[in-house]
Amino acid sequence: MKTGEDEHGVQSQCAAAQASLLAIIMAMPATAAMAQTDVEELIVTARKRDEALIDVPFSINALSEAKMRERGATNIEELSRNIAGFTVQNLGPGQSQVAIRGISAGQIVRDQPGVKEQVGVYLDESVISLSLFTPDIDLFDLNRVEVLRGPQGTLYGSGSLSGTVRYITNQPNTAEMEGAAEATVNSVRHGEVGGELKGMINIPLTEQAALRIVGFATDFPGFIDAVQPGGATNEDVNGGSRLGFRASLLFQPTENLTITPRIIYQTIDVDGFNRVDVYNYLGNQYTTTRPRVTLGDLEQFTQLQEKFKDEFRLGDVTVRYDFGDVALTSISTFQDRDVLVVRDATALTGSITGGSIGLPEAVFTLDAPLYDETNVKSFTQELRLASDGDGPLQWVVGGFYSNVDRDYSQILDVAGFEAATGIPTAGARAPKDALYYSTVPYKQKQYAVFGEATWTVNERLDVTAGVRYASYEENRILTFDGIFADTTIGVPGATEADDFAPRVIVAYKATDDITFNAQASKGFRLGGINDPLNRPLCSAADFATFNALSKPSFDNETVWNYEAGMKAEFAERRGSLTVAAFYSDIENLQATIDAGSCSSRVIVNVPKAKSSGLEAEFAFRLTDDFDVAASASLNSAKLKSSVNDATGAPIQGLRDGNRLPTVPKFQAAFSLNYAHELQGGWTPFANLTWQYVGDRFTQISDQENNPRTVTLFGTGAPTVSTLSFPLELPDYQVVNLRGGARFGNFEAAVFVQNLTDERALLSIDRERGLRARYGYQTNQPRTVGVTLRQTF
């Protein structure tokens, strides 16, 4: 544990490093060599119309597929390390949580289906975000990924409280037949060999129609070993696969009318989680009357195979009709997803049956798989009119409707429990040996109208104003049963809300190359309904505390964001620099707290919180052969009020001044790229990327009593009665290296991801207040691979 003097030294060093990085960024344009090639410039559609990235008058980052490939970004988590103010908390395959600008209420876990997302995620024009289970989209044949920072509620709705992420795919085109094929083989240190096969073909069918098909197959290499009772080890249990395709058809019957239907299918099937166990109630090094288990660097203790499976199906149709100076666009989307999570809850269940109740070993070691199933069917429709001319007034108006049916169930199946104990387990809904059983169907409807307009006052000044009005209604039916649950059969619950999301932006073009902008914008997140506490598991004290906090529903969360920024191009457009400073005022933050011995989680509203910070992104073409890019963000996100218990003491870290979780105070990335064309058509290339992520907390409460000392259960007559667990996630650095050569349309590359084999702690994984299990999710060890790519 650091002393106060040590902490001050670390903070001073961090501040010095931050100042040095920003000084380097600012100094590089003046010292770089001259060249004639511009940096990459993308066209984006962040405001529902085409415009150059540098012209968008708020903080936005966009990376092309080529840049993502150069920097070794193969998923959203790796992508986030390259973008200022953008973080992803890894909770296992397909279960990562996105945060932008420090606005995060903490880890959302599998049994909180009523919590809504804080960042909206879109695939082209179709919304795909779903709180915990935002799809892990394959990045092949994307045109770009756009990250819009700050509330985007005016154009994108309630899911975009703190920002929006948009995956933009390449569209079918009638100009020419083209295709691409890519094969990768990779090997993970301490783990398996994996690989990828990906392909794309664009086929012009007629002068008015074209078909584009993308297919992909990924074999994820496992690297976590699972120690079993008896001492055997199952190796590389977190391996798995991803299979899928996208098929889109462009049909243009007239010059003004374009119709683009599309279908997408993707399935992810993984046999375990990237979790490292430090302590497990059923397998640890302290027991004396049970076999001792000493876990290694990349090991966990399990009794059964865990599972994550996600089947994602999406069909959408985009129709655009150009009237001349006005365009009408319709986007209709249907989505169907099935998510299954199987967790080994034997340690959690054993801590109750053995640790708390004192039942014999034959009972508390019974296999206890916990099945979480989510099925989502949704339909969304957006219809909008937008100006499509060159006049001084650019505008968009539209309407949005969504209908979401989400069925969630959770079953703890402890086969043989009733026979071993004589305790009746069947309930009104729970079958025999289902100690916990719940089904919660949700129905949510949303109606919204929105509009935004930009007036070019003169050649230097633009003013933008917009607003969105949305009405929401959510209904669900609560059914909880089993001897671990507070029996609740068919009890309805409902919440509804209306909200406005305005935005005002002023952009001033000081010169042809420098633009200043300022804005005020509002974002919101719909509230929800809390589950009942598991009263049979609660101590009297915990029930009294958390029952008082566990209101039937929690309120909408809102954010008012104020920011000012600058965007500049320099050195004859060889370089670009964007800087933004922001302050976000958060009301009714939806914070997650663990309800102690109740093995439940409760959402409470913290009245006030704030997030403020600075973002900077820089790119520069040093010479014809070299270019660099850098990004950095400083963030201070804290509670500004407390939530207290009956004695006046703050509950689980909900204390004025504590940091918001999952987000580092400082994050930075640097990339150096080289490419030189030789005689004969060969072009060797190389890329080095460095990424830094500062210290974080998984939950707000982790800042209290850290390291935290917990009293162990006496099961197995342990040699110690207490253990102390650190809860701060330390900073980490990842270095990626990639190099190879291109010849015509062929490319061959070798790469090393996580060159230094950094072992990052990405989030804390715990059960029953750390007494059943303490561990963490970790990143992939050093990975070496080869990629071959052919285009035509």
Describe the structure.
The protein has 792 residues and is mainly beta. It has a single domain, classed as Maltoporin, Chain A (Beta Barrel). It is 9% helix and 53% strand. It is built from eight helices and 43 strands. The strands form nine sheets. The chain has a 22-stranded antiparallel β-barrel. The chain has a five-stranded mixed beta sheet with strand order 3-8-9-6-7. Strand 39 and strand 40 form a beta hairpin. It is globular and about 75 Å long. 48% of the residues are buried. The N terminus is likely disordered.
- Second CATH tier, the architecture: Beta Barrel
> How does the helix and strand content classify structurally?
mainly beta
**Beta-strand residue percentage:** over 45%
Uncertain parts: 1-37
CATH fold field value? Maltoporin, Chain A
CATH superfamily: TonB-dependent receptor, beta-barrel domain
CATH C-level class: Mainly Beta
Q: Radius of gyration in whole Å, from Cα?
A: 27 Å
How would you sum up the major sheet?
Answer: 22 strands, antiparallel, barrel
Structurally, the number of domains stands at: 1
Terminal CA distance reads 58 Å
Helix segment tally: 8
- Principal-axes shape call: globular
Briefly summarize what is shown.
This protein is mostly beta strands. 9% of the residues lie in helices and 53% in strands. A hairpin with a 6-residue loop joins β33 and β34 (682-693).
